[in-house]
Amino acid sequence: MKSNYEIYRTLLSRIAAFICLFFFFTTQSYWESKNEYISFSLFLAGIILVAIASLGRMWCSLYIAGYKDDILVTKGPYSLCRNPLYFFSMIGVAGIGFATETLTFPIAFAILFALYYPSVIKSEEKRLKQLFGIEFERYKSRVPAFFPKLSTFDEPEIYSVKPAVYRDHMFSALWFVWLVGILEVIEGFKEIGLLKALWTIY
């Protein structure tokens, strides 16, 4: 059962997604008509970042799916940093921003991410400390919170995965890919005249 905080966080995320979709529908990229090289470079950067984020989130889900509150996961991506899912989400958010072929969206997304996720991470780590106590404190002392530290990487030869749970997580790990698809559909609607942009942004 979800906590009140998780329900609030989900609601806030959906509101933010709705606002973003509104601006996706009503804006167009300045670079698309003025400089095709910049426009293409921004989109390419976005696709690469989204690919990294999706693969990274699937990697994290391989380790965490079905074990979130049962054991303290410290192997694989969780040996690099304590919040790899959020790290890869940051990369994915940046990718979606660049996929709009603008600079405005990635800058705005970076600001929103920096304002929102520190409190999420703080709440998650408070919960983990309550669940795992000294074990989490030891983990916290050797592994950084957010940005990966390659020297702490630890990967087991064998790891037990719960296929049914991982399958659900796998689909959610790909939502950045779905968003790029939505952006392309919106762009196609604009090109054939079904949608009209109200603003041009850089």
TrEMBL record:
Top-level taxon of origin: Bacteria
Q: Where in the cell is it found?
A: Endomembrane system
Could you give one GO CC term from the UniProt record? Answer: endomembrane system
| InterPro entries with a match to the protein in the record | Phopholipid_MeTrfase
Q: Where would you find the membrane-spanning parts of this chain?
A: 12-31, 37-64, 85-117
A GO MF label: transferase activity
Which keywords does this chain's UniProt record carry? Membrane, Transmembrane, Transmembrane helix
Query: Do you know which PANTHER family this protein is assigned to?
Result: PROTEIN-S ISOPRENYLCYSTEINE O-METHYLTRANSFERASE, PROTEIN-S-ISOPRENYLCYSTEINE O-METHYLTRANSFERASE
Record's protein name: Nickel-cobalt-cadmium resistance protein
Q: Which organism is it from?
A: Syntrophus aciditrophicus (strain SB)
What is the organism lineage in this UniProt record?
Bacteria, Pseudomonadati, Thermodesulfobacteriota, Syntrophia, Syntrophales
